[in-house]
Recover the amino acids of this structure.
């Protein structure tokens, strides 16, 4: 529970139901997804320090960098059944484990607004209820004896069932997992348990400043009622019934709506036979189609949440991002690297290192797979420097348009990405999960290879062009969560301020506000 | 690829691992794992926040940040000149600081002038700085996961790189361990204060935990804020950071593990070439302070505009205790997932908690520490109910044997989860460096499994009866208090 302190902030995952709209404040560089191969990395020359090429001595420049050992990542074996089910098998014999996962199309973005939270409740109730033959509590005990796991979950675009065991226990654990997949028995007491825990999360959602800031920033970008931004409330959680869970299951768990992936210490031919025996008899159903939405983007302005128990402000400046299928994705990725990718990036160098205004500062023009991601710049700073720190981040956003990348910046941005490219596929599990994700969203399997080529071709002019095409400060909203009494100069320095009401709507039939739900 | 490379026990590890202690005392571990042309390292310095000197809390963590500021070769345009400029910064800061700390007779005009002198000296030194060159050099060469962390017990540095950058990395790492330069120190001190505001001041559970530890430990440094008390972290100096480095970053106090696409026969000479020349120094003397036995229950109650939260801790011996595995067994029986007794009782059956957990090693393991529990009440339930329900489970542990199934599941899980942790370079490097540091031998990673296998039901009852007693307990809780209503009629944020 004690949190170690770090130089490079790694956020604990922020509570957010959308995968792509994950507003991480991390300084970690942009990471691509999907997997392929270079025989060796691009640059054979040692890195120079571009900004200071004239520095008297760079002893490291003499250190040899030999060609990278030839490496061909092992691609998973793909099988498509006649009923539309897609299977990926990835052998990895280093350790005696087998891990599996079923990805099922349809997630919280596809649930009815009046039942927001339903898919999350489904994800937890499914497993804790168990199957008709084995209830969830018994399953817990059985698996614990084998140090094995079977878990279910609900996300924004999909639900999932995953399992993991020693290979010697595979057959029994796989049988239990398939029993749970085919014959779930949703139970009232387990739905109630999940509901009560979700109510606690609702009651606690205004306790942490950064949680509030992320949530409100996402609402600004997509609109408060968007499937990517809306919140589960007491009323919507209460509206979910056992029948809803069963109906959701029946609708989504059909072979042409699912992908099965397995990795570990097994023989692919034998495993394929086992999977065929289980899945081939299933009849096709209807593939889940996600509704097309409009994305008008945020309303320009400063939005504020007052929190009296903090001495620091959390600031987000947000707008719409893009999709990975956008041909400008490569140039935008290089722009990201220049803007906020790592210690050498503009915001890190300026806001943290030069001004000392923040421990956490970052941003990204993020790209989701099938809807626009989020563009954000963010900073967490002491109350007194709220305005200057916000202005500093805004300045850096503006400079993306006015100050083209220098050759040194271009080299840094490309070297960062290309030299670390190997980490996209340095384990069989990474290669597998990339292929699954690409297939899930209908991207070509050589997407990563193309991504690498795309990055190599990006020019400084491309970066400036996309910065001017996609960044419009008049379409960005600012969200600040901080302690009003300490913020000086006031936020109004930045423009007219809208106070956001984050009051939690009370449960149906209960009085509003007042003491916490815990009383 | 990697068809038959099984890494599952001491024997198979022995074949892939090489350990070498350099003449200067530095311990190096190379583990060959040629699955992909990459490697990870883990540099573990056997000194952490617990070693912060009196009046300088937060210094170990501050130094960790400084270790990213470069060296006498990286991050500077002219080190000889910079060195002189940095010495002037320290002289100017010391003069300012002496006036600043005066309790009687502080002269505001003199203070202002000394402050200006200090800032001018800083600006002069800044002229030689190439900001973030160290981290940039690593990132341009493909480093990922570039980071470090400061815990109570130790400070660790880690990242991964393509394996053809191994020698470059050895140069960089040896340079910052042996010859770091505390440049831009006072701006980084501001950054670290922001980190304190984020982790402690502005986080309700962070605030509570700091108070909790300060209450549970009256003598040992485990009770002192690791990120530093505001007054102290805002006044530490680069001179003090240098002294900390000199005392604690001696080779004999450091273990470095590298794991990945490396051959020991090639890697060891490179490591020796770069890390060998670092000057030896005396191993820091062991700490004298031992937390005295607690003889009365202590408690902390914080009233905050936040939902309730409860935690409590019981003192236990350090990791070398013969019962160390018994504590692991207790943590497993009480708190492992949905089969843990605490979940089953408080979450599943009584429906009073949203979450509950327990385990030992707070805030560290090297010295006597705490077996800690925490829980978040569900709406409509209270901290008192959580406390009572935890105590009921502890009484049960003291008065009745755990079941055969529970004990067997602990032993199986312990073995299997250890194996699961060996699947990647980063995790392996971390484990090897930790075990080598704590036990002087990485093999303890596996031997510990045999110790866990020997734990009996009677051991669990005996240890539970020994530590889970009221007089050995410290509790801390957040109780909800409405926020102060400031100017209800005002228009909010826009002043």
């Amino acid at each position: 529970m004690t949190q170690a302190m770090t130089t490079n902030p790694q956020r604990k995952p922020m509570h957010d139901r959308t995968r792509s709209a994950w507003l991480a404040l991390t300084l970690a560089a942009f990471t691509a997804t999907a997997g392929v191969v270079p025989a060796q990395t691009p640059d054979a020359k040692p890195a120079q320090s571009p900004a200071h090429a004239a520095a008297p001595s760079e002893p490291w420049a003499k250190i040899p960098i030999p060609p990278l050992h030839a490496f061909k990542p092992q691609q998973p074996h793909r099988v498509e059944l006649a009923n539309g089910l897609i299977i990926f098998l990835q052998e990895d014999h280093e350790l005696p484990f087998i891990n599996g996962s079923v990805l099922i199309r349809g997630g919280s973005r596809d649930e009815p607004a009046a039942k927001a939270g339903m898919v999350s409740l489904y994800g937890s109730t499914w497993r804790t209820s168990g199957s008709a033959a084995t209830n969830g509590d018994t399953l817990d005990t059985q698996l614990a004896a084998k140090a094995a796991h079977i878990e279910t979950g609900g996300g924004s675009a999909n639900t999932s069932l995953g399992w993991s065991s020693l290979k010697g226990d595979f057959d029994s654990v796989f049988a239990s997992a398939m029993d749970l997949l085919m014959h779930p028995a949703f139970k009232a007491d387990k739905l109630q348990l999940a509901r009560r825990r979700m109510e606690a999360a609702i009651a606690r959602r205004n306790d942490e400043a950064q949680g509030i800031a992320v949530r409100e920033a996402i609402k600004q970008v997509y609109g408060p009622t968007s499937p990517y931004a809306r919140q589960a409330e007491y009323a919507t959680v209460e509206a979910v019934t056992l029948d809803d869970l069963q109906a959701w299951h029946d609708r989504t768990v059909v072979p042409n709506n699912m992908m099965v992936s397995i990795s570990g210490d097994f023989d692919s031919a034998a495993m394929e036979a086992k999977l065929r025996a289980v899945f081939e008899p299933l009849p096709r159903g209807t593939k889940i189609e996600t509704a097309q939405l409009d994305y008008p983007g945020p309303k320009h302005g400063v939005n504020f949440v007052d929190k009296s128990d903090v001495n620091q402000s959390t600031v987000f400046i947000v707008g719409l991002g893009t999709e990975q299928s956008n041909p400008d994705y490569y140039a935008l990725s290089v722009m990201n690297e220049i803007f906020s990718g790592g210690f050498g990036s503009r915001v890190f160098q300026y806001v943290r290192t030069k001004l000392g205004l923040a421990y956490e500062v970052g941003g990204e023009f993020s790209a989701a797979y099938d809807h626009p991601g989020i563009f954000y710049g963010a900073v967490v700073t002491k109350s007194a420097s709220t305005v200057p720190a916000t202005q500093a981040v805004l300045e850096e956003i503006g400079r993306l348009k006015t100050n083209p990348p220098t050759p040194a910046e271009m080299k840094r941005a490309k070297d960062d990405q290309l030299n670390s490219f190997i980490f996209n596929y340095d384990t069989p599990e990474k290669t597998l999960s990339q292929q699954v994700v690409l297939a899930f969203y209908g991207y070509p399997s050589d997407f990563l290879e193309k991504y690498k080529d795309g990055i190599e071709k990006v020019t400084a002019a491309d970066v400036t062009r996309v910065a001017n095409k996609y960044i419009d400060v008049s379409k960005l909203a600012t969200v600040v969560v901080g302690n009003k009494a300490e913020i000086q100069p006031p936020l109004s320095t930045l423009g007219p301020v809208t106070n956001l009401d984050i009051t939690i709507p009370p449960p149906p039939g209960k009085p509003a506000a007042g003491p916490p739900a815990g009383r | 690829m990697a068809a038959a490379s099984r890494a599952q026990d001491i024997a198979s590890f022995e074949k892939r691992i090489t350990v070498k202690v350099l003449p200067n005392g530095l311990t190096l571990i190379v583990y060959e794992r040629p699955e992909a042309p990459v490697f990870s390292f883990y540099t573990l310095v056997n000194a952490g926040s617990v070693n912060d000197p009196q009046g300088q809390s937060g210094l170990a963590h501050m130094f960790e940040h400084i270790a990213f500021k470069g060296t006498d070769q990286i991050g500077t345009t002219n080190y000889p000149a910079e060195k002189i400029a940095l010495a002037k910064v320290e002289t100017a800061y010391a003069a300012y600081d002496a006036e600043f700390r005066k309790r009687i007779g502080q002269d505001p005009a003199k203070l202002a002038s000394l402050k200006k002198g200090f800032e001018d000296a800083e600006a002069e030194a800044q002229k030689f700085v190439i900001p973030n060159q160290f981290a940039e050099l690593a990132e341009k060469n493909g480093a990922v996961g570039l980071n470090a962390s400061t815990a109570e017990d130790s400070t660790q540095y880690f990242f991964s790189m393509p394996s053809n950058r191994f020698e470059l990395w050895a140069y960089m790492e040896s340079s910052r361990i042996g010859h770091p330069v505390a440049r831009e120190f006072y701006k980084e001190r501001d950054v670290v204060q922001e980190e304190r505001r984020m982790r402690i001041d502005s986080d309700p559970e962070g605030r509570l935990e700091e108070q909790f530890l300060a209450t549970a430990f009256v003598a040992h440094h485990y009770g002192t804020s690791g990120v530093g008390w505001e007054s102290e972290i805002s006044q530490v100096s680069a001179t003090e950071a240098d002294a900390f480095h000199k005392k604690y970053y001696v080779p004999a106090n450091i273990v470095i593990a590298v794991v990945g696409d490396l051959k020991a026969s090639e890697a060891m000479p490179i490591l020796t070439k770069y890390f060998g020349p670092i000057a030896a120094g005396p191993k820091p003397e062991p700490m004298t302070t031992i937390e005295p036995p607690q003889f009365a229950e202590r408690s902390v109650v914080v009233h905050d505009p936040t939902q309730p939260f409860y935690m409590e801790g019981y003192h236990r011996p350090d990791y070398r205790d013969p019962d160390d595995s018994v504590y692991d067994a207790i943590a497993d029986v009480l708190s492992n997932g949905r089969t843990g007794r605490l979940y089953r009782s408080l979450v599943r059956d009584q429906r009073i908690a949203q979450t509950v957990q327990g385990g030992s090693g707070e805030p560290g393991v090297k010295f006597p520490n705490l077996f800690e529990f925490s829980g978040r009440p569900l709406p409509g339930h209270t901290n008192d109910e959580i406390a009572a329900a935890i105590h009921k489970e502890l009484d049960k542990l003291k008065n009745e044997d755990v079941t055969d199934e529970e004990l067997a599941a602990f032993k199986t899980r312990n073995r299997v989860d250890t194996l699961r942790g060996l699947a990647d370079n980063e995790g392996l490097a971390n484990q090897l460096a930790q075990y080598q540091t704590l036990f002087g031998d990485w093999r303890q990673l596996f031997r510990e499994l045999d110790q866990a296998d020997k734990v009996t039901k009677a051991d669990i009852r005996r240890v539970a009866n020994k530590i889970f007693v009221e007089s050995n307990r410290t509790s801390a809780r957040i109780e909800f208090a409405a926020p102060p209503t400031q100017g209800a009629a005002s228009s909010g944020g826009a002043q």
Observations:
- Residues 66 and 506 of chain A are 64 Å apart (CA to CA).
- Confidence is low (pLDDT under 50) at residues 10-55, 514-519 of chain A.
- The longest strand of chain A covers residues 372-382.
